[in-house]
Amino acid sequence: MRYQLYYWPGIQGRGEFVRLALEEAGANYDDVARGKSGIEKMMAMMKGAGEKRPPFAPPFLKSGRLVIAQVANILFHLGPRIGLAPKDEGQRAWLNALQLTVTDFIKEVHDTHHPVATGLYYEDQKPEALRYASGFLDERAPKYFGYFERVIDKSGGPYLLGRKISYVDLSLFQLVEGMRYAFPKAMKRIERKIPKVVAVRNRVADRPAIQAYLASERRIAFNENGIFRRYPELDK
Amino acid sequence: MRYQLYYWPGIQGRGEFVRLALEEAGANYDDVARGKSGIEKMMAMMKGAGEKRPPFAPPFLKSGRLVIAQVANILFHLGPRIGLAPKDEGQRAWLNALQLTVTDFIKEVHDTHHPVATGLYYEDQKPEALRYASGFLDERAPKYFGYFERVIDKSGGPYLLGRKISYVDLSLFQLVEGMRYAFPKAMKRIERKIPKVVAVRNRVADRPAIQAYLASERRIAFNENGIFRRYPELDK
Question: Could you say which architecture CATH assigns to the domain B2-81?
Fold first, then answer.
């Protein structure tokens, strides 16, 4: 099977959570919008001229005849197919709940620089961003990470589900990497209380397929168009 | 099978999307936190003393031995069991993508009154709320509703998946009801362009099980502690 991933070509963004899973699994995939006329192809599918089930927004994945949107939904579909999720229904539901908690976390990260409107520039909402980021770094981020820490503790570790890696571990890696990029000072403080989360991050970073991916040009660098943005004034 | 729903007892909130599905299906369920010592029971499960898979937040559903968190995940689990989702994997993935788009919409509705921090009162973030709500009503709400309109159009209607009702239609009903409550003026304007969405709302409202539910005391009234809040200053 060869998958087609559709996502904005210049950023890691939400697409990165899918890329990491495909890369760890060694799956065959095209990062369509990074290829020739890629954005046009992506937009055409969203406009849905020929599409009975047009996605609301990227990322979406073409898997055979299916077009699947929403990160957690894509990973739910891919997981058992590429060896990154259990097959048992109850375990999959638990994994999906964790991934949807990642989704919620990501939205709040996004809102640290866009608390008023996605359609405005960061520069047009800086005072609001400062207020938002403060509460986010003091309360929300520690709460989310603390929850994942507790889940690893309860599973017995080293991964969120226990002994076997799953796609949510890759997402947790990305959350730590992104938070380190965007909020290095606050993250140093937060990390003191989440050793098991950091250990997941380190295990994922050590995996050969992930190392190869991170060293390749397929890994887009963090930048100030993505979800995790380094605006030093927001980091305290 | 008897289900146990855990959600805050004084609001419709995110739990309402699950309640509507259980009610439409005529499923047996307890709304646990509305019963005696209910909140304590809910909190105990979240603290997870005896729970290997503690939920991050309500709502969550106990279904047999499983505890399932996150609205879209709960509905994904329930759907085929209570006759509100197809059994085909591809159709379920499409339905799930739609429901996750509802999830995104709900979060933005919530942020109209809490754009800065969930931990603060609305009164502490009124100027920001005014800015947020303006962009939300001008752009985001019409975009989401317009998307669902297009989906119904493509499916052939009258429901989102076509001829058969599914749980996402019940969620769409709730979105229309909530938006009418919170933003009656703006919604009047928005509804002019989404006749098929309004038709779904009407069909759902006409269903006997939903009528009985809405007339019962099990349906909590909209109020200013929930997600949809009527603050006239935000409605334009």
Answer: 3-Layer(aba) Sandwich (3.40)
pLDDT in tens, B145-192: 999 999 999 999 999 999 999 999 999 999 999 999 999 999 999 999
What topology does CATH give the domain B89-206+229-234?
Glutathione S-transferase Yfyf (Class Pi); Chain A, domain 2 (1.20.1050)
Q: Which long-range contacts (CB under 8 A, 24 or more apart) does B116-125 make?
A: B116/A115, B116/A128, B116/A131, B116/A132, B116/A135, B117/A131, B117/A132, B117/A135, B117/A136, B117/A139, B118/A140, B119/A135, B119/A139, B120/A135, B122/B224, B122/B229, B122/B231, B125/A131
ipTM above 0.90, yes or no: yes
Q: Please state which of the four CATH numbers 1.20.1050.10, 1.20.1250.20, 3.30.70.3270, 3.30.70.270 is assigned to the domain occupying A89-206.
A: 1.20.1050.10
Q: Give the separation between CA B210 and CA A145, rounded to whole angstroms.
A: 39
Q: Residue B96 and residue A111: Cβ atoms within 8 Å?
A: no
The CB-side HSE value for A196 (13 A sphere, CA atoms) comes to 18
Kindly list the residues from chain B whose CB atom is less than 8 angstroms away from the CB atom of residue A76.
93, 96
Locate A141 and state its tokens: 């981020």
Strands A28-31 and A2-6: what pairing?
parallel
Task: Give the chain B residue whose CA is nearest to the CA of A55.
Answer: B97
Question: B96 CB near a chain A CB, below 8 Å?
Answer: yes
B129: helix, strand or coil: helix
Cβ contacts below 8 Å, chain A against chain B, sum to: 126
Which residues in chain B have Cβ-Cβ distances shorter than 8 Å to A52?
154-155
A-facing residues of B in 25-44 (CB < 8 A) are: none
> CB contact, 8 Å: B7 with chain A?
no
Does residue A155 register a pLDDT over 90?
yes
CB-based burial of residue A57 (10 Å sphere; 0-12 exposed, 13-18 middle, 19+ buried)? middle
Is some CB atom of chain B closer than 8 A to the CB atom of A56?
yes
Per-domain boundaries in chain B: 2-81, 89-206+229-234
